């Protein structure tokens, strides 16, 4: 095959007559230019698919619309007609097989497995009536989406697609590594995978402190300090006018202001009379805080809360005693095994991850297992479709494998665009949203009749703890006051006693009468 080389065509030839070889080169160059022009024409057609292009007209000596030329207009009409045939194809009751396994509220097989229902099943039933094809369900007993085997083939649902036993998978995540086998339709909705656990509700032991936020507590303390400083300044100005000695310092003002705010103790008369307006404001402020506190105290005392024991797979494996249960036939089964294996610290952690053959069995294990705590690894839509009928589960913060949910069509299917247009029409008219509201979106009934529960010690033990702590602090303060008092008293006694010098007094012996002694001796 001859190559197109422009350098051969531009070789100088100085003879006046053209040789046969040069003529062949010119013909070859002309063919190359024709081929390049044809490729450029095709590229122009591709550009013209988006906008109406223009072309230079030699006769008009100006740019004219591309499709004003008859041959371009004919080609464009043919292209549009071919596109319409692909988008609005009448299948004429052609049989198309859809393969899946039973999943309640997502894809359910009814009427002896001759029809499908659920949110995704009804979408395809509507498309079958709209596009005039016959939908034949193929139900798989084994719940396996499909994994690639060592020989390059697939098992499960993907295996049926590969062996031409089915053309449609109604529900599938969009993954890049499967594009060699299937094409995806327009997405239906977005999902993420979460860890779902059974909540354990408990009373808030520190409800007294959680009644107000930290900003409110800081504002309350700051306001008391400001009132104390204002009272101290008022007293200081009053004493300066009368030239009296200040009796109470700033520490005393803070103490008495806090006592008024807590409705505890009383303020000395001379202090109260000099700062009466300040203490009236403090009393009013404390009553407002007390009313706000009392109005929510019973609610917070009886309220229960749930604290997540972990946030994701890493903290579950390394920082908790929970075990994970996942769906063995999930479309992310292989990716999940690779992800969770990164967090193993010990060999025994492998036993904490198990698999179930059905999504319903996963939720039943999590809900009704009593001897150990389990967490379910599942997709959002499957949890809404199946988990709501078993028990109430709560998802953790971390999410995994975010993807779009769509339908998978065997790669190379000619009329896939008809499915895309049909799904877009269903979405525009709100039919898909209506099906989701009917089959997936749901709310828990929080208005259940809960029997009366007496307030137990776990709800009020903090109050008694504060009372005991206050009693202990009062005794310690009393003890310190007594020690300070007696120590000061001893110091005063020592200071008031006169400093008398010590004088040594020798006892004076009586004088002896020598004459008498001599007389007695004689």
Q: Could you walk me through the main structural features you see in this protein, from its secondary elements to its overall organization?
A:
This protein has 18 helices and 16 strands. The chain is α+β, with helices and mostly antiparallel strands. Among the domains are: 51 residues; 89 residues. Strands 7, 8, 9, 12, 13, 14, 15 and 16 form an 8-stranded mixed sheet that branches. It has a two-stranded antiparallel ribbon with strand order 1-2. It has a two-stranded parallel sheet with strand order 3-6. The termini are far apart.
Sequence-ordered SSE layout with sheet pairings:
Layout: H1 6-9, H2 20-50, E1 54-57, E2 62-65, H3 70-87, E3 94-101, E4 108-110, E5 115-117, H4 118-131, E6 133-140, H5 156-162, E7 168-173, E8 182-184, E9 189-197, E10 202-203, H6 207-210, H7 214-242, H8 250-261, H9 269-274, H10 276-302, E11 304-305, H11 313-319, E12 323-327, H12 333-340, E13 353-356, H13 359-368, E14 374-379, H14 380-386, E15 394-395, E16 400-410, H15 416-428, H16 431-439, H17 457-496, H18 514-521
